[in-house]
Structures are given as C-alpha cells and as structure tokens.
C-alpha cells in the first residue's frame, strides 16, 4: 500500500506523513527532502530552487524520476509530496487543507536553515510565492493542478486539529479503503 500526502506549506504534511508511516510500520519519503538536498547542492533556498525549476525543467525531472522510481520498486510507504499523487496513481491520495494564517504560524518556529521567517507576513509571502511558482510550472509541464481536490481520495482540514487527530482520520480512511479493496 502506498499513501501520498499533499498540502500547502504549513498544513502538517511532513509531520502527519511521518506519523502515519510510523503507525503503519511503513517507510517515509518526502519530495521536499529531495528538493532541499538538490537546493543545498546548488547553494540555494527552496524558494530559489523553485524559481530555477520554473526556468529549467531538468530540476523537476530529477525529483519526479526519484518519486517514480520509488513507486515502481517499493511498497508500503508514505510519501509527502505536492506531485506524488500525479506520479503514483495507485496510491491512496490525501490532501491536508489549513487556514493560511495558521499555516504561517506553524512555519515560524521551524528550524530549516534556508526557510526561517521573522514575521507571519514574511512566511505568508514566501508560501504564496512557492505555491504560485510551482502550480504554474506543474500546470504547464504536466497539466496537473495539485490544488484540485478531485485529485484526492480524502481531504482533511487541519486548521483546528492536532497531528494525532489528523493521523486518526487518515488511518480510519485507509482501514476502510483496505476493507473495500479486499472485498472487491
């Protein structure tokens, strides 16, 4: 079983994906980690890498091929990714929604070296820039809109939920999906 978890920045995607993987005894992957490694190799922030990706499709292709390869060769994993639902069609696809200000507040204390913000406004500006840059590019490259809710099997609003509550909703959905698959 493969589970993809997508969301806007700060919705809890990585935190929740790690917890779901742990609860299921699955491996966890993150295309955000793949991209951060690539950005570091090129001495860029993740936002700067996104801008470069908009000009040179090869950067996207490197991350996308890694995602596709994992999906072809592995099973029983959770991947947090904006694009994995597109590249891993056989997965159970989850999307986490969340209020923008709440997402920005969540981003402020994060300790990523190239993604530190001093104000909520700075975090919101950066998140919007990343989302817009990525969304435009992926519509152009793949004709895929990661914000189109029709691409997902389950949507969870994380605005007022703790990670454990979100994980509970996802695990219940996965359990029900597995039962339906086993019957069908």
Short description:
By secondary structure, the chain is of the alpha/beta class. The chain has helices spanning 13-24, 31-41, 46-55, 57-73, 84-87, 100-107, 120-142, 163-183; strands at residues 2-7, 27-30, 77-80, 92-97, 154-157. A five-stranded parallel sheet has the order 2-3-1-4-5.
Give the topology.
Layout: E1 2-7, H1 13-24, E2 27-30, H2 31-41, H3 46-55, H4 57-73, E3 77-80, H5 84-87, E4 92-97, H6 100-107, H7 120-142, E5 154-157, H8 163-183
Parallel strand pairs: 1-3, 1-4, 2-3, 4-5
Question: Can you characterise this structure?
Answer:
With about 180 residues, the chain is of the alpha/beta class. The chain has a single domain, classed as P-loop containing nucleotide triphosphate hydrolases (Rossmann fold), CATH 3.40.50. It is about 60% helix and about 15% strand. It is built from 8 helices and 5 strands; from the N terminus they run βαβαααβαβααβα. Strands 2-3-1-4-5 form a 5-stranded parallel sheet. Helix 2 packs across helix 4 and helix 3 crosses helix 4. The longest helix is centred in the last third of the chain and has 23 residues. The two termini are about 15 Å apart.
Number of strands: 5
CATH-assigned fold name: Rossmann fold
The protein's oligomeric status is single chain
Query: Average pLDDT across residues?
Result: 90
Q: What is the gyration radius calculated from CA atoms?
A: 16 Å
Quickly give the structural class.
alpha/beta
What is the ordering of alpha helices and beta strands? EHEHHHEHEHHEH
Strand order of the largest sheet: 2-3-1-4-5
In CATH, what is the homologous superfamily? P-loop containing nucleotide triphosphate hydrolases
**Portion of residues within helices:** 55-70%
Total discrete domains: 1
> What's the number of helices?
8
Reading off the top of the CATH hierarchy, the class is best stated as Alpha Beta
Distance between the termini: 16 Å
Low-confidence stretches: none
């Amino acid at each position: 079983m493969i589970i993809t978890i997508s969301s806007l920045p700060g919705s809890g995607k990585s935190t929740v994906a790690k917890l779901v993987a742990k609860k299921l005894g699955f491996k966890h992957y993150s295309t955000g980690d793949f991209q951060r490694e690539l950005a570091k190799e090129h001495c860029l922030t993740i936002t700067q890498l996104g801008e470069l990706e908009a000009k040179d499709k090869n950067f996207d292709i490197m991350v996308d091929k890694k995602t596709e390869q994992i999906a072809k060769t592995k099973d029983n994993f959770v991947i947090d990714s904006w694009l994995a639902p597109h590249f891993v069609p056989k997965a159970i696809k989850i999307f986490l929604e969340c209020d923008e200000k709440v997402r920005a507040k969540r981003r402020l204390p994060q300790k990523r070296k190239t993604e530190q913000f001093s104000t909520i406004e700075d975090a919101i500006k950066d998140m919007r820039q990343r989302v817009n840059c990525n969304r435009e590019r992926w519509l152009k490259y793949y004709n895929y809109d990661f914000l189109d809710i029709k691409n997902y099997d389950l949507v969870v609003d994380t605005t007022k939920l703790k990670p454990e509550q979100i994980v509970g909703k996802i695990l219940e959905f996965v359990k029900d999906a597995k039962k339906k698959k086993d019957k069908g």
